[in-house]
Amino acid sequence: MTKHVYTFGGDRNEGNASMRNLLGGKGCNLAEMAGLGIPVPPGFTVTTDVCTLYNQAGKQLPADVVEQIKEALKWLEGNQGRTLGNAEKPLLLSVRSGARDSMPGMMDTVLNLGLNDATVEGLAKASNNPRFAYDSYRRFIMMYSDVVLDVHKDHFEEKIEELKHKTGKKLDTEITAEEWKQLCGEFKAIVKAKLGRDFPQDPWEQLLGGIRAVFNSWDTERAIIYRRMNKIPDEWGTAVNVQTMVFGNMGDDCGTGVAFTRDPGTGEPYFYGEYLINAQGEDVVAGIRTPQPITKYQAADSGLKSLEEVMPDVYKELYDTCQKLEKHFKNMQDLEFTIQQGRLYMLQTRNGKRTALAGIRIALDMVKEGMIDEQEGLKRLNADDLTQLLAPIFDAKEKAAFKKAGKMMAKGLPAGPGAAVGLIALSAEEAVALAEKEESLDPSKRKGVVLVRIETSPEDLAGMVAAKGILTARGGMTSHAAVVARGMGKPCVCGASSLVIDVAKRTVSVGDIVLKAGEDFISIDGSAGEIYAGKLSAFPSEVNQVLVEKTLKPEASETFQRFAQIMEWSNKYRALKVRTNADTPHDAAVARAFGAQGIGLCRTEHMFFEDERIPAVREFILAKDEEARKAAVIKLLPYQRKDFEGIFTAMNGLPVTVRLLDPPLHEFVPHDEKGQAEMAKVLGVTIEEVKHRVEKLHEFNPMMGHRGCRLGITYPELIRMQMRAIAEAAINVSKQGVKAMPEVMVPLIGTVKELKFTKDQMLDEIAAVNKENGTDFMCPIGTMIEIPRAAITADKVAEEAEFFSFGTNDLTQMGFGYSRDDSGSFLPEYVSKKILEDDPFQSLDQEGIGELVRIACEKGRKTRPDIKLGVCGEHGGDPRSVKFFHRTGLAYVSCSPYRVPVAILAAAQAVLEEKK
Amino acid sequence: MTKHVYTFGGDRNEGNASMRNLLGGKGCNLAEMAGLGIPVPPGFTVTTDVCTLYNQAGKQLPADVVEQIKEALKWLEGNQGRTLGNAEKPLLLSVRSGARDSMPGMMDTVLNLGLNDATVEGLAKASNNPRFAYDSYRRFIMMYSDVVLDVHKDHFEEKIEELKHKTGKKLDTEITAEEWKQLCGEFKAIVKAKLGRDFPQDPWEQLLGGIRAVFNSWDTERAIIYRRMNKIPDEWGTAVNVQTMVFGNMGDDCGTGVAFTRDPGTGEPYFYGEYLINAQGEDVVAGIRTPQPITKYQAADSGLKSLEEVMPDVYKELYDTCQKLEKHFKNMQDLEFTIQQGRLYMLQTRNGKRTALAGIRIALDMVKEGMIDEQEGLKRLNADDLTQLLAPIFDAKEKAAFKKAGKMMAKGLPAGPGAAVGLIALSAEEAVALAEKEESLDPSKRKGVVLVRIETSPEDLAGMVAAKGILTARGGMTSHAAVVARGMGKPCVCGASSLVIDVAKRTVSVGDIVLKAGEDFISIDGSAGEIYAGKLSAFPSEVNQVLVEKTLKPEASETFQRFAQIMEWSNKYRALKVRTNADTPHDAAVARAFGAQGIGLCRTEHMFFEDERIPAVREFILAKDEEARKAAVIKLLPYQRKDFEGIFTAMNGLPVTVRLLDPPLHEFVPHDEKGQAEMAKVLGVTIEEVKHRVEKLHEFNPMMGHRGCRLGITYPELIRMQMRAIAEAAINVSKQGVKAMPEVMVPLIGTVKELKFTKDQMLDEIAAVNKENGTDFMCPIGTMIEIPRAAITADKVAEEAEFFSFGTNDLTQMGFGYSRDDSGSFLPEYVSKKILEDDPFQSLDQEGIGELVRIACEKGRKTRPDIKLGVCGEHGGDPRSVKFFHRTGLAYVSCSPYRVPVAILAAAQAVLEEKK
To answer: Where is the Pyruvate phosphate dikinase AMP/ATP-binding domain (chains A, B) (predicted)?
Structure first.
């Protein structure tokens, strides 16, 4: 017979902390505490498996479960010397949910169960406190009706309000025993009126009803939404904890509270918590009375009375218990306790939730204190949290004041962490103009610019560079704006759809708040996705101040020291190398400061957009034959060479993987009349010629059109120019003692012959450069694997490729057949309908796209055992994906500069998780 | 030591027909003929391997090859009793190329080699014909200079013209020995002037030069282009045949000619050929003199003198030899012969090229004659050729007359075989209107309509249905127009880019030819890709007349009998079933008549476009909530149900695989102002609403956007309506005794959860229908495999899918990352640069996309061993792809109705090719 019910406390403690999956977090920890000799009111846990059985059986408790509950109850009655429903010595119970992972506030609880018209009298007598007894009874009727009988608690609240109104009383505490008793009668009448039957007086029926209600609450909409948000599988189910009631509301020697072994907001190692005298737990939550601080330290000069002062002995016992529990669980604990007539009972302990910054501090402190070792410390960290250490920040108090003043305009997606403030620019040109105007000013006097667009495109690049932050009304976490902003380490809020951007009136508005472009400030918090009207104060992170700006000494910043510690430990364990995606010397330098071990993706297309270059690009596009194309493209050579010289110098001694031109040509031509007229003028052709060419460049599905290596196959002069720029740059900087280590990769390969053709052109150009310079420059030539066919035929591709770099963004697009730019119309629904667990553009789809990666690695190695395998693109900075890449045996991941530390930590965690 | 040179003829015949790869087609057959005792001038063959060695060695003949040539020459001199360069008894040679597969006219030949200033005198004496000798010498100098020395033959032709002008002579035959001799001198002077050295007098040097020249000619541009067109690998190389010269130009008892054992144009079993008295082979080719027919039958009443009459004995020997060779090779032979002083020499025999229709007839005749068995007969056929038996046809003579009269306007791609004539319609509406106007007329008086568009889109569908044929100025073999036209079995010419379509002026023009829409006729030959101004006479194929129109009895058509014979044999051997892609009862019936064993792809989107339906579709698209959408979509139910009733009835007893709605919704809304205004009016909304919605539907990459199963997941009411229509239709027709066998497939699945979600909706709707009707309808539910991720995770997908149907079109798009609509900008170049062997949309890419198919089959079977596997889409009608699908173990292919016979034959050939 399967065991469905486990007792805890008293003389029969059947569980422990290792049984979390079966008993839930609360249940297993109650048993664990009892095992440690900590005062826990005894009770029993109905397992999470029963939740599944219950639902499978059409919301019915199986008979053997009911039997086991009965048996456990009998033990509990014996242990307590009280009996459920006994009018003299009634046993009173709490019924609480308890899933594997805590889901605070999501599920239902019933307290004071076992009370009825008879036992309430017994309780009054036993406690010698009829007011307490009837207060407890009315609470029970309210809770039970609300949770189990589906009679909303508002009906009861009304009655209490009526009574107060009639009697002129304000507080619950003023209500007398008699009045409570009368209310109990009215409450029962409400239930009878609503349901046509009496409020259940049979405590056994009450108990089963309570247990069923908790199981039902697993499937409420709010619980489902919470699980989806927190990636908790539906199959886990919740356990139900039935526990002897203890009362914090029996008088002034009673109380209830919550405590944290450390500050969950900052991570500071101070005991921390709140309590109320003469109250039940729900009173703390309801917020009617202001809770008091637990410690004197907390209370400080507030004038509030701490538990430490009010009940020094109880406080001492609580403090010791909490310390014991933290040491036992080796983690910051979040505890609930009740004091009944001067006696302390622990009702719950669990690992406390904490902010990102607190999480980092606590893990590191515990290592320092010797509570956990550094490996455990690393495992405790959430790699994503590291971005918070790097992002510029708003002052929290100022933000709160803005919110209060109604100056928070809207929320969007937190697409690029950090804080940005500036004047509103509605176009890239405006952003550039505003920024340029400020360049002559003293930095302290600059106002900054925030680029606000419906959505961004590559043409907005200059504006994004000029802006402090980017805000869009459309687009998701992987829209152009989001990807580019994260790549630049700029704060970005995307998809703020309630924002009205009126380009004609030059305003950005939400409701009454109307901001004028070029005049008004806007502040965006890319970590929270919040948009504020007006100017908040923003500061660069301390890590940036130390590493990039060098305005702060390492030892002057605790935050930086923690960051450095995490990096040091991570570097000790990780196997994966971490490179960065960067295409300017500045980005390269930032990433290097953050620990990047090379550039994994140096895009070259951004280099084509700058003002002095774009005319040559457009001349190339308009050229009628190869000769004219060659003449145009060669004008780009000096610029491109200079770009590479800067990057090679910044990455002196580290590899730089350059990707040949990738986007379709139509991205380089203007699509508006005005731009086309300008282009015609600059190039000395008719506007019709320009229009005609732009039209010819139009594609139905540009993502799958004439781009990537396909460009270079049609226009070999293009890749020859790029290869020449790389080779000449490497040769030039090496004369200044710089060790340039370019690796060149060909994008969008589908078949080895594309690579062969392109490589032949490149090798030929390298040979020409070497001949002209009397040098022997050479570099590895490899390919992106981003087309499913390339992955499937990777054995063939490896015949020519010296390395693979997985372009998992495009591989996801092609592998799923999802256009990233268009997926907004169905992907969110896919995630909400659980067709996909995650947005596959944010976290790699390991089952499908990951399988393509795995196949490609295996086939690639078969042909070329020492082939270097890496990944570039957004997934290289996603911790879950990074761990997958580690397990798949890649040599490196590459991600945007501000995610380099995230990837470094995730890479170390991957190793540590494997050990386990 | 590797043997590089093989002698043939005389007393040392070292080769035979089985050595084609090594000796080339010509060489091995010369040896084979010699072995059969047929008179062949002796000689030797330098192998194809030497071609490769020659090229690897930087265009050098390896020393051992030269040694072996020397040795073979010595044997030949002995055999002939003549010596190369001997002034008394000179040995004269021809040097000819000879690849594995004949490449007619592509490579170089040198005749009369061995002549020089001394040997020409010997030849004059020996032949007692100085004119012949000097004529031969001047020919040799011309040819050798042109081919080996790179001095163009025009320089020499000029001199002959000068001489004729000076002497007033018109024909070569009038030129005297002395004049030829004088010209030889001038020719040599030209060479000396051009090259700065004498024309080579050393016959050995001449011989090596000739051999080298033939090897060089393997790499000329025209040869490379020819190989690419005919898919001949570069590595094959050519052999060189050095052969004793025989002369057809020594007098009137000499001659030369070509013969076919059967008529290569019609396949009729009559000996057929042409010859010239007193001529060398090049004279026949040059076309200066009109060749004479070989047989009396050919000569008929032409007044021409046949060889049969002029040289009855030689004719008899030639006839017997040819018959012997056809019987020996068991194939129609194409032969070259020379008659020297009354003696017949065979210079070449090979399998003759023939037209599609001749090929079919010859293969069937040979089976009837017992020369080959039916399996060999089937293998001989080119499956693609069968479409020619099904397509409507123009009268060949009339076409020729049009061409002569300059009425051929342009050439485009032969995108849908057959002939179509009609008035020009420039829009779908116009085509429908013109066709409707004609409906009341007697069929003989109808003019028909040809739809002429820049390109077509789904909105043109009604026009395509109304038209007899489709002509577009843009788009390739797999453009929308081409795919739909082939699906409908309509003639189609695509991508006729020289066509100027002026919608404003309502004209279609090329140069001077200007046709008025609605008034002028246009004729298109979709088999040849030709476009004619005016009205050609078109006839339906005899097969159609028998099977579809039933206006002709089977026994009255030889063509039909051949078709039926091929189908009968094919059905005997094939394992693959062949279904059709059809979405109307008419197409279904046609395909069934052609042998289709069910419908493999019944698209449902076309059913949404018809006039009375599209308003409901658009109402659905505009609807603001689910209720409104449900109300709109249910209006489509009666139509959709009726569609299915018709199709199920037409396919009574055969499976019909229905695909749920696939295209993105924007295909169903008008994109022009006028259409949007109309739509707004019909639906009673503002035009702004329409515009806004259309804008919202815009996608950057619609191919990878909101379509396929993604639609049904967002709008389950859509698939529920479709499933209901299918179920109700099946139930309805079964009451009339029709056995409906629907199978429903979900398009664009990437993950099993998409299928699960959709299937749940479908099963639920089926249950509802059954409950309403008291029925127990059920049908298999499966999925398209057309997304790479679905192929890779097919084991998971098969948990829900009862069958897979490979959508290889989209699988190719996503697998390669090629947008079919945009690939015109690079795919042709890819094929010409040999990066791809073929357009992967025409013939399946077996290495990459085929590997995805293979993986999916393997994984699908692992989960569900009896899973039914099929393929739908264009590749199902491509013979090479069909054979691949057979080898991969699919159960069926599905293709457009007019390709069903092609697939049937290819399926049989696949089996027969496996046996070998």
So the answer is: 21-57, 59-299, 315-357
Q: At what angle do helices A849-863 and A879-888 cross, to 10 degrees?
A: 30
- Strands B333-340, B343-351: pairing is antiparallel
Do the bridges between strand A413-416 and strand A492-494 make them parallel or antiparallel, or are there none, so unpaired? antiparallel
Neighbouring residues of B805: CB distance < 8 A, sequence distance ≥ 6:
B600, B601, B657, B745, B782, B783, B784, B785, B870, B871, B872, B894
Using CA atoms, how far apart are residues A908 and A571, in angstroms rounded to an integer? Answer: 7
Which residues fall within 8 angstroms of residue A805, CB to CB, at 6 or more apart? A600, A601, A657, A745, A782, A783, A784, A785, A870, A871, A872, A894
pLDDT digits (tens, 9 = 90+) for A741-765: 999 999 999 999 999 999 999 999 9
SS3 of residue A31 by DSSP: helix
Edge-to-edge strand ranges of the sheet holding B333-340: B292-293, B272-277, B255-260, B333-340, B343-351
Q: Does domain A561-602+639-661+705-914 have CATH number 3.20.20.60?
A: yes
B359 is in an annotated binding site: no
Among residues A872, A875, A886, A895, the one annotated as catalytic is A872
**Which of B416, B509, B420 lies closest to B467 in space, CA to CA?**
B420
Indicate the residue of A704, A825, A847 with minimum beta-carbon distance to B818.
Answer: A704
Are β-strands A492-494 and A469-472 bridged in parallel, bridged antiparallel, or unpaired? parallel
Q: How far is CA B146 from each of CA A170, B137, B204, B276, rounded to the nearest angstrom?
A: 118, 14, 18, 25
Asked if A692 is an active-site residue, the reply is no
User: What is the ipTM score, two decimals?
Assistant: 0.82
Q: Which residues of A touch B852 (CB under 8 A)?
A: 788-789, 792
Give pLDDT, residue A744. Answer: 98
User: By the CB < 8 Å criterion, does B699 face chain A?
Assistant: yes
Q: Tell me which residues of chain A, numbers 853 to 892, contact chain B at a CB-CB cutoff of 8 Å.
A: 855
What pLDDT sits at residue A348?
93
Rounded CA-CA distance A273/B908 in Å is: 82
Can you list the alpha helix ranges (DSSP code H) found in A172-202?
177-195
B615 has a chain A CB within 8 A of its CB? no
Q: Does B753 touch chain A (CB under 8 A)?
A: yes
The 3-state DSSP class for residue A493 equals strand
Distance from CA of B666 to the nearest CA of A (A): 13
Q: Provide the 3-class DSSP secondary structure of residue A912.
A: helix
State the count of interchain CB pairs (< 8 A) between A and B. 173
Backbone phi and psi for residue B246, each to the nearest 5 degrees, phi listed first: -120, 150
Ranges for all domains in chain B classified under CATH 3.30.470.20: 255-354
Nearest Cα residue to B748 out of B776, B691, B707, B797: B707
Return the CATH number of the domain spanning residue range A255-354.
3.30.470.20
Return the structure tokens found at B850. 């085929």
- Residue span(s) of chain A under CATH 3.20.20.60 come to 561-602+639-661+705-914
Q: At what angle do helices B558-573 and B900-915 cross, to 10 degrees?
A: 50
pLDDT digits (tens, 9 = 90+) for A522-575: 999 988 889 999 999 888 888 998 999 899 999 999 989 999 999 999 999 999
**Would you say how long chain A is, in residues?**
916
Alpha carbon separation from B179 to B123, B126, B186 (Å, rounded): 17, 20, 11
- CATH number for the domain running over A392-540: 3.50.30.10
Among A782-791, B608-617, B862-871, which stretch is predicted with the lowest mean pLDDT?
B608-617
* Residue written as token pair 């051949």: B562
B713 Cα to chain A: minimum distance (Å) = 8
Those residues of chain A that have pLDDT short of 70 are 104-106, 229-230, 284-288, 477-478, 487, 489, 916
Query: CATH 3.50.30.10 in chain A, residues?
Result: 392-540
pLDDT at B477 over 70: no
